[in-house]
Amino acid sequence: MFSPFVRFGLAIMVASATFSCTTPVSMDSSLLHPRLADTASELLQSNQAMDTARVEELNDLAAWVGEALSVNGHVDLTFICTHNSRRSHLAQVWAQVAADMAGLEGVRTFSGGTEATACNPRTVAAMKRAGFEVVVADTLHGANNPTYEVTAGPGLAPMRCFSKTYGHEANPGEGFGAVMTCSSADRGCPIVYGSAARFSTPYLDPKISDGTAKEDSTYDARLRQIGAEMLYVMGRVAQGK
User: Fold this and answer.
1) Residue 41: phi, psi to the nearest 5?
2) 169 exposed, middle or buried (CB, 10 Å; 0-12, 13-18, 19+)?
3) Do 143 and 97 meet the contact criterion of CB atoms below 8 Å apart?
4) Which end of the chain is more exposed for a tag (fewer CB within 10 A), N or C?
5) pLDDT tens digits, one per residue of 59-100
6) Are 132 and 150 in contact (CB under 8 A)?
7) How many CB atoms lie within 10 A of CB 71?
8) Beta 75-81 vs 107-113: how paired, if at all?
9) C-alpha 211, offset from chain centre
């Protein structure tokens, strides 16, 4: 059923410990705000190295997204970490941007946590530095948990980011792909209720640098890693169509 992706997976099973992460299709960065377009173009050209296990994880996710789009014409992805504060929001916005750049209609992205806190201001600042436009839309979920409206390009729909549990009414209740972006949520949520599939793609928490001189660089590095991998995933999906 997933033969194009299976063949790709077999092709990369070689002795080398790392692989060049390349996106095999044209991605339209002209849709994006100029500074974000530059960031995306840099990530597409970065050829970040990934080990065998990481490539397999991302290819599994791409295969499922491609199959769901083929069968249903649409697919929902919910990115999950413990607090829905940092990594899950970065993955949500980059996955949507990557799908739009790849011309994949029917992809919708969401995020949630095993508990709710707030979208961390450092996450917001990293998005702005990368070229996203981010404004506070409302405080319906509390003054300490504002809803941020994140825009990637003038013709693209804004994304709404606030901290919530993955089962919140703003997220799909069933049939979605659950993508675990942190190890603690991955361990604590062996079953994600309502999901049609579950994937583990954990990232190191940029929180480790909070309050230090390396804070901005750590958040920027995590944003770029997540962005590069989501661009890769959606590129694989587009290639398989």
Assistant:
1) -65, -40
2) exposed
3) no
4) N
5) 999 999 999 999 999 999 999 999 999 999 999 999 999 999
6) yes
7) 10
8) parallel
9) 25
The predicted structure's pLDDT at residue 186: 83
Tracing tokens 């504060």 back to the chain, one arrives at: 85
Please state which CATH class domain 52-205+212-240 belongs to: alpha beta
- Cβ distance 98 to 58 under 8 Å? no
Burial class of residue 52 in the structure, from the number of CB atoms within 10 Å of its CB (0-12 exposed, 13-18 middle, 19+ buried) = middle
From the list 148, 120, 119, the residue with the least C-alpha distance to 135 is: 148
The number of helices, as runs of H, and strands, as runs of E, in the chain is 7, 9
pLDDT of residue 10 exceeding 60, the answer is: no
Q: What is the mean pLDDT of residues 213-224?
A: 98
Round to whole Å and give the CA distance between 210 and 117.
16
How far is Cα 74 from Cα 13, in angstroms, rounded to an integer? Answer: 30
- What is the identity of the amino acid at 37? A
Nearest residue to 206 via CA among 188, 226, 186: 226
CA-to-CA distance for 60 and 66, rounded, in angstroms? Answer: 10
The residue extents of the domains of the chain are 52-205+212-240
Phi, psi torsion values for 161, nearest 5 degrees: -120, 120
| CA–CA gap between residue 24 and residue 5 (Å, rounded) | 13
pLDDT band of 184, cuts 50, 70, 90: confident
- What residue spans of 87-214 are helical by DSSP H? 87-101, 121-130, 183-188
Average pLDDT for the chain: 89
